[in-house]
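Request:
Um, any thoughts?
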Amino acid sequence: MKGKLLLPKLIALALVCFTSCKQQSEMIYDTISVEAPFEMPDIKVFRLPDKSFNISSYGAISEADFDNTKAIAKAIEACHKAGGGKVVVPAGTWVTGPIHFKSNVNLHLEENAILNFTDNPQDYLPAVFTSWEGMECYNYSPLLYAYECENIAISGKGTLKPQMGTWKKWFARPEAHMNASKTLYTMSSTDVPVDERQMAEGENNFRPHLIHFNRCKNIVLEDFKIRESPFWTIHIYMSENGIARNLDVRAHGHNNDGIDLEMTRNFLVEDCIFDQGDDAVVIKSGRNQDAWRLNTPSENIVVRNCTVLKGHVLLGIGSEMSGGVRNVYMHDCKAPNDLHRLFFLKTNHRRGGYIENIYMDNIEAGSMLAVLEVDTDVLYQWRHSVPTYETSITDIKNISITNVSCKEANMIYDLKGDERKPIRDITMKNITVEKVNNEIGNVQNTENIIIENVKAL
């Protein structure tokens, strides 16, 4: 009798598995061809089933004192189990804790929808597998988090707007935070297993990312707005194939980079506006021994038609780049206001790795310290606070910047290579700066520089 009762359940389970596999195999992808001065794979954009899961149907309520975390999670689970579709956030302000994605889910923010994330650190526990400044660890959950997901998206005309009271208090780096940073640095430098690196403890105060997609495939970020962030704003980590387009990102807090692509390949960023408290577009690939262990470069990345209203750097490479960065092309972008640097490549003698085949073309900008800067001795607060476990010099070659017009700069180029492995093959063509306050350029430990029509008016 027991066997007869069990048989229908097994058949039903088999049908569910068959349906799920069939839906996965029938996923349809469109492709976007992207021009670049290197072989750039087409970007695949998935088509999810035409199904909608409104969070209101799962118990969500647009009220200031109502926590919608569980309701949103139920809608995501239902969408995922049904084979995928849209989880719809309608107009209104919806208070929530962390949102964790599952495969084949598009979190769709309708116009005038606001996801208002709480700032109570306890809401972001238990800790999840993430990273902190290029080192893997377990930390407070990012506000929007995905791990090993495929075909995931955030879309629509709505807004991600975290509450910032607690996170602003955590912007400071008091002694407890710095000691925790040193501890994580030591663990990552000495191959302590990641699951032992528990950092969401005591007064460590490692702020969570706003968006952190970890080891994911096929990502779409489209049309929405961001208003402030606890830490790095959009962090795509160890992931493959994606697009970020038509985003309006404004976050002026500490470490508020616009978008960080780290150990990520085959990605397009286009038609976005960045207004940042730190660097705007950043390509990274992990720090020191941790990145050498992972051995995953960032590569095949195109950034086009973007505007940076505020930020330290238009395009930054590093300083966490130990896994290597290659094949990056930024073109037809604008930065009309003040920057620290337009194009900044930064590393140090602990990083190793490589930076190669990086291209910037057709840029209009305002004022800055330097148009192109390469610095091989960037250590920030780490210079004397932690030891050098192993010296490894970064190989930097084939860097090109062409067709740039700027209003003002202290210097057009500042190339500071390392004598142990000089920078090689730098091309600068058609760069015009209306006013140069200091010298045109500085060159140290650099070989094979091509400079054509680089001038101050």
Observations:
- The two ends are 92 Å apart (CA to CA).
- Residues 2-25 form the longest helix (24 residues).
